[in-house]
Write a structure and sequence with these properties.
The protein contains 16 helices and 16 strands. The protein is α+β, with helices and mostly antiparallel strands. The strands form three sheets. The chain has a seven-stranded antiparallel beta sheet, with helices on both faces. Strands 5, 6, 7, 8 and 9 form a five-stranded antiparallel beta sheet that branches. The protein is globular. The two termini are 25 Å apart. Bound molecules: flavin-adenine dinucleotide (FAD), D-malate and zinc ion. The site of zinc ion has 4 residues, from strand 15.
């Protein structure tokens, strides 16, 4: 081990205490491979600071040693941005935020809260619910995904149609820059026009500009009652129409999720559940509504008024709702169990979504004959997820074909998961050279040594 590396490890141990600098391969392992198993590499060490001051000491030491740093929260990201990559020049330090999990008291008057970046979404949800409030964003990885990771990826999830993505929840932030300097706008205000809005800029920055240490979030009212409907529909275009019609007529709509028969089949096999209908349907739409009064009748009426629904089940009790939601939420883990997936997360203008979905199987098959494609997603935002099983992890032919189709059809190559390491090569085709040059200028200004998550979002 060279002298600079030894000095760095000594400085890291002095910063966070020796027990929180993991260098043993067995202890590092879970921090070095991502959730999909497609992305992995070797870290010099995993460092687990417990305070903003400790994060600053870690970054100062890494900047001095010119050591790359990968911020990591719950490691549920799906674009390879949270783990070391193979082939980097120097083994990076993984900076785990999991010990930054403080939950400050809820500000009930304003409906807001400040939390540590390493707090899981589930922990913040439970905290907010104790005060009769709710976090505006919800997603299937809630038990592990952290608030810092969700801000860094500008996570979307299941309730975007009502409350927006993570950026829309974020009022204030505290973060440590690459040189160890701390920027802090806490608690932050709903109305705050004091120049560049750093919380907004750090939302979606994927660990490339700063390590987020605390965040101040707006909360939303928690409604007492929910109802869920699962609909069987004859085709993709009809399913998009039904979702759009219900959204127009039902202000209580909270979620609208689309999936297809091949995905449902994999889920039923993986979780060992019974089919929801006696007969199979090409497309399924899950709709959820909430309210202070039971929204079941209003949801049922909105569904009945929409044409194109062939089958429907409704549930307003907790167990029934959970059973229906499981059919949608278990897509990710069920497809993961079929093999190492290529995950593609895109957004299309809603008017083109059905044409895109229907064209995708042909495009995937031309790129990698025999590959299996599962599509599902958040229909009102035109956000489709593809899980493709077949191509080896480093074969990008399917990713390339689908992302090019997305760009040709006027879509975005990343709807909610970020660019990560997976989509760096498609960023410029989507955003254009001028946008990417501006992003690079911001990166150079805030991280001149390019130590924060190099290779993610922008090529060094
Ligand atoms: P990580 O995976 O640890 O990191 C993700 C990125 O953020 C990395 O680039 C990392 O460097 C950076 N980062 C992490 N913490 C910080 C920090 N404190 N400061 C700076 N940078 C940081 N995503 C959605 O948007 N919508 C969904 O519906 C959704 N559902 C999911 C369901 C499942 C089952 C799974 C496995 C994933 C899902 N995801 C979803 C993806 C993932 O959960 C989100 O991207 C989440 O925001 C990542 O949080 P994390 O704490 O796990 O971050
Ligand atoms: C989802 O909506 O289920 C997630 O974003 C995760 C995935 O793409 O599998
Ligand atoms: Zn999603």
């Amino acid at each position: 081990m060279c002298r600079v590396t030894e000095q760095l490890l000594d400085a890291l141990r002095a910063a966070v205490g020796p027990t929180h600098v993991l260098t043993d391969a067995d202890l590092r392992a879970t921090y070095e491979t991502d959730w999909t198993r497609r992305w992995h590499g070797t870290a010099l060490a995993v460092v687990r600071p417990a305070s903003t001051e400790e994060v600053a000491l870690v970054l100062r030491a890494c900047a001095q040693a010119k050591a790359p740093v990968i911020p990591q929260g719950g490691n549920t990201g799906l674009v390879g941005g949270s783990v070391p990559r193979e082939g980097g020049d120097a083994a990076p330090v993984v900076l785990s935020t999991l010990r930054l999990r403080d939950l400050e008291p809820i500000d009930v008057l304003a409906g807001e809260v400040t939390v540590g970046a390493g707090a899981t979404l589930a922990a913040v949800q439970a905290h907010a619910r104790d005060a009769g409030l709710e976090v505006g964003v919800d997603l299937g990885a809630r038990d592990s995904a952290t608030i810092g990771g969700m801000i860094a990826t500008n996570a979307g999830g299941l309730h975007v149609l009502r409350h927006g993505s993570m950026r829309a929840q974020l009022l204030g932030i505290e973060a440590v820059l690459a040189d160890g300097g701390v920027v802090r706008r806490l608690p932050g205000m709903v109305k705050d026009n004091t120049g560049y809005h750093l919380p907004s800029m750090l939302a979606g920055s994927e660990g490339t500009l700063a390590v987020i240490t605390r965040a101040h979030l707006r909360l939303v009212p928690r409604k007492a009652r929910r109802a869920v409907a699962l609909l069987g529909i004859a085709g993709t275009a009809a399913a998009v129409e039904v979702a759009s019609a219900v959204r127009r007529t039902l202000p209580e709509l909270l979620a609208a999720e689309l999936f297809f028969d091949n995905g449902l089949e994999v889920v039923l096999r993986h979780v060992g559940a019974e089919p929801p209908f006696r007969q199979r349907h090409p497309a399924y739409l899950l709709l959820e509504a909430d309210g202070d009064a039971d929204p079941t009748d209003r949801l049922a009426a909105a569904v009945e008024a929409a044409s194109g629904v062939d089958d429907a089940v409704l549930a307003s009790d907790e167990e029934g709702r959970r059973r229906i939601w499981r059919l949608r939420e278990a897509h990710t883990e069920s497809i993961n169990a079929e093999g190492i997936p290529h995950k593609v997360d895109v957004a299309l203008p809603l008017a083109r979504l059905a044409a895109f979905i229907n064209h995708v199987p042909e495009v995937v098959d031309a790129a990698y004959p025999g590959a299996l494609t599962y599509q599902y997603g958040h229909v009102c935002e035109g956000n489709m997820h593809l899980g493709v099983i077949g191509p080896p992890p480093d074969d990008e032919s399917v990713d390339d074909a689908v992302l090019r189709l997305t760009i040709e059809m006027g879509g975005s190559v990343s709807a909610e998961h970020g660019i990560g390491a997976a989509k760096v090569d498609w960023l410029e085709a989507d955003r254009g050279a001028a946008d990417v040059a501006a992003m690079r200028a911001i990166k150079r200004a805030l991280d001149p040594g390019w130590i924060l998550n190099p290779g993610v979002l922008l090529r060094p």
